[in-house]
Amino acid sequence: MGDTNSMLYAIGAFILIYLIAMGIYQLVLWIRKKRKTDRTDSRLQIFSTDI
After folding, report:
1. Is the pLDDT of residue 46 over 70?
2. Which stretches within 1-51 are classed as H helix?
């Protein structure tokens, strides 16, 4: 039973890390979109898309 328990913990940890990573990724995309709509300077937009 110890093997199945550790397997469940591993799957749970992986899902948790995945969800946190996706949340951070969505936050970064949202911040980038918000920054694009705030600043209309084309040079700043080109600079932010290169990063």
Report:
1. no
2. 2-38, 42-50
